[in-house]
Amino acid sequence: MGPVLMTPPSKLSITRRIRALGQVTERCECDASTLVGTVLRLWCKTAFPALPQPSLPYSKVLAAEPQIAAFVALLGQLSYLEATYWLSSAYAVLADEGYRKSLAMFFTPASLTEGLLEDLAAQGVDFGSQSFMDPACGGAAFLAPIALRMRTALVAQGFTALKVLKHIERHLSGCDLDKTLCELSKHFLCMALHAEIQKTNYVPSFNVHTANSLTTLAACLGTADVVVCNPPYRKMTAEELEPLRDTYSDVIEAQPNLYCLFIALCVRLLRIGGHTALVTPTSFLSGQYFGRLRKFLMRNTDVEHIGMVSDRQGVFIDVEQETALTVLRRRAEEDHTQVRANVSVVSGAGQYTSVGECTLSNSGAVWPIPRSVDDVTLLKAAALSRFRLSDYGYRVRIGAYVWNRDKRPKFDSLQDARKAKAHTAMPLMWSRDIVPGRIVRLEDTSAYDGEHRFVDLGDKGHMSVVTSPCVVMQRVTSNDQPRRLVAAAVSPGVFDTYGGFIGENHVVIIEAVSDKPALPPTKLAKLLSAHAVDRYFRCISGAINVSAFELNQLALPDPRALREALADGRSMEEAVHLAFGLVSEG
After folding, report:
1. Which of 11, 106, 97 is nearest to 323 (CA)?
2. How far is the C-alpha of 543 from the C-alpha of 162, rounded, in Å?
3. Per-residue pLDDT at 262
4. What is the DSSP string of 103-123?
5. What is the band of 318 on the pLDDT scale with cuts at 50, 70, 90?
6. What is the pTM of this model?
7. Is the pLDDT of residue 336 over 80?
8. What pLDDT, on the 0 to 100 scale, is given for residue 317?
9. CB–CB of 226/125 below 8 Å?
10. Which CATH number applies to 389-580: 3.90.220.20, 3.40.50.300, 3.90.1170.50, 3.40.640.10?
11. Largest Cα–Cα distance in the chain?
12. What is 343-383 written as a DSSP string?
């Protein structure tokens, strides 16, 4: 009888086990730091016996709990890098929620770090000679695999075990705001080099320290060969932004995301010719308030490669978003009008599949990035178009009504509004009223129980009231919807009957600002629903929210060519392809 093959535990099952450990720590009156310290000591006792005891707190009471022993055994079933990822993640999941969010503790899975390090190697990075830094090192998600690659390269060069340890000690560094994570990272590095430590009895003192990278690394600027980072991402408060304004003024715009400043820092840390590898949300590629960052990157770097992670689900625990793996090369500052970058789609397992090149503008405009091979041709054609929604005679606005905050009188039906003598009540449009391929009519009574249909604004001329012919869109879409742009025209009857409507804030309103727009709303809705237009929008937006800024940047075909094709009896899909030049007239 052959050996029994064990199925590796799933991400979901491990996450559930970690959450269950939270109950154990509460019962034993221990915090997250003591949990990981206890697990780490038990794990190292059997698997890494040559190492000194971890400096993190340890609890005998916690160590005696069966669930702790089971979690240690689980780590032993995983690869070293996967195990370190899950132990770091256990600390993040079980830490105080407010603290976790303030530090934005979300760690990179081993499969993605390995894929990104392979990409660095393909760009010419030498793990056997160059220096590496991570200014937001977290649980050594990058530092540990880099140490393993450095060791392999050094051994191949004939380095002794002691020389390997001392070289890595000098050429690898990191910092983080959280002291526990820094101690965890240092011990993970020792675990990665356990064989050398066991052979030499030399324990390196790794340069991993607790610090705010954004304010304390001035002496390191322009010195690093390679900077790797999964920067923290969350909106910054005005208070924490104020002392950073002068230093990061060239990338700060409105209320920036924390990772915007970290990207700038990573570039500044590099020597000319150095590389940075980043794991970030995709919002910097197209977001309205990342325009200065895009200009900064075009002036100071060559965008060597952009990897778009195809698996939105499960990349980071408790986070659903599209992720980019970006490799940049520092160069002397100069202005470039356009740059071409290689693009790949990356699987959740870290496998890269090339989809071609894309063109990046230096104007701060969005960077359309292909998500598939088929998108490359579309983007090339769309790049030649100068036409946007404004050229069609329309403008974009977002519904202003926030149902759970607005205190004005609301009514389930027109009859209720009349009974209350609400002479200025206006119909309210909800996102669910918008069905693609249909005309939005707004009945006198909501079709959904408990959902009000009318709101008394006190003034029918209120700025929130939409009175012009328009197309409406769902502002938020889900992963399982086939289209990102879910659009429909509003029936003229809505304006004839009620004089207009107000939109709930999950409704995007594209209203005519010209007496003779290039297309009437019914045809504009069909244009926005066309496959090529929807695909282009996906290439400029990885978020589930449909942003007014990104809609205004949406490349559209020449309206005159489009009308001519429609007049010839073409369908909207055919007319869009023809007007974009994606097919010949023959």
Report:
1. 106
2. 48
3. 97
4. HT--PPPHHHHHHHHHHHHHT
5. very low
6. 0.89
7. no
8. 37
9. yes
10. 3.90.220.20
11. 90
12. EEEE-TT--EEEEEEEEEESSS------SSHHHHHHHHHHH
